[in-house]
Specification:
The protein is α/β, with parallel strands linked by helices. It has twelve helices and twelve strands. The protein has a single domain, classed as 2-enoyl-CoA Hydratase, Chain A, domain 1 (Alpha-Beta Complex). The strands form three sheets. Strands 3-4-5-6-8-10-12 form a seven-stranded mixed sheet, sandwiched between helices. A three-stranded parallel sheet has the order 7-9-11. Helix 3 packs parallel to helix 4. The protein is globular and about 55 Å long. It starts with a helix and ends with a helix. The structure holds ligand L6WJOLX4. Ligand L6WJOLX4 binds next to strand 7, strand 9, helix 11 and helix 12.
Amino acid sequence: MAAVLRRGIKFISFGSSQVFSGGCKHGKTSTLSSFSSSNRNSSSSSKIKVDLDSSTGIAVMKFQNPPVNSMNLEFLTEFSIGLEKLELDKSCRGVILTSAQPKIFSAGLDILDMYGKTPEHYEEFWRAVQDMWLKLYGYSKITIAAINGSSPAGGCLVSMASDYRIMADNPRYRIGLNETQLGIVAPFWFKDTMVNTVGHRTTELSLQFGLMYSPSDALKIGLVDQLVPEENILSTATETMTKWLDIPDHAREISKSMLRKPTVDRLLASRDADIKNFVSFIAKDSIQKSLGLYLTMLKQRKV
Ligand SMILES: CCCCC/C=C\C/C=C\CCC/C=C/C(=O)SCCNC(=O)CCNC(=O)[C@H](O)C(C)(C)COP(=O)(O)OP(=O)(O)OC[C@H]1O[C@@H](n2cnc3c(N)ncnc32)[C@H](O)[C@@H]1OP(=O)(O)O
């Protein structure tokens, strides 16, 4: 399915950035295309539900990949295409990202996509991770993460790549880049995203220890911007979005680009090398062994 979706993607250029344009031949992608014909448009691909209210300009993308919204190849592809469709839709001005799964925003990248697969698979998977981050971090429209559950590693990356983060104030939830706990390493652009969010020193400690933060600690270090009672998360995200929408789009967009483009350009300048790095790193016996152990611990509920 993911391969079919990928064949439907056409690359177009915006300045120095390569972005997606959804091709609509495949049934699944074409369901994402009709956002602007009435005030409220809903579309549900298999892994992400998109709901755009064109009277307010606010879209909600709800992750629905049970049990834990892990980001596999198919999810990543749908996410990138969904974002691209909304970016091209003039009636959309801002996107709220949230989860349909109870207690989990996203468990991060799907570990099974990094374990026991072929180099060709790792390459395709990593390109899809890069595509998703490039799209989201360099997104022209406003993005708000409504983090209604735990958000480790890739889930934290998605949150940090958004413009504003609101987290449910539940002391059981955790957020952070925990890669080292799995025996793997967050790549430079995950690290850059975190440095840009919480600063260099906090990132040094966070990444080396693979720290996962409670909502209150995440707020203290600036990893999230606001905590709210869980039941208010979507209404708060919508109210917050309305305030962001008061700012003229072009001025906000240029300001965002000024701050984020150098970070985006760093990966754009070295995408192939980064993929090569990932493939050779992840395929190492020692790394596969670490991931295998982590998966076993997850299954035994010891993580
Ligand atoms: C020169 C050097 C260069 C180095 C750099 C080069 C390249 C970089 C290399 C690598 C970079 C990789 C970057 C990786 C990013 C990631 O995102 S890795 C994923 C990290 N995620 C986690 O650690 C989360 C693990 N999961 C949990 O902590 C919990 O599952 C939970 C999300 C808190 C939910 O808890 P709970 O509700 O109790 O659910 P369960 O634990 O019971 O889980 C349900 C089932 O889901 C499976 N699962 C959970 N997470 C994942 C996942 N991320 N991927 C795949 N599967 C997952 C879990 O095993 C359960 O399955 P079963 O029901 O037992 O079958």
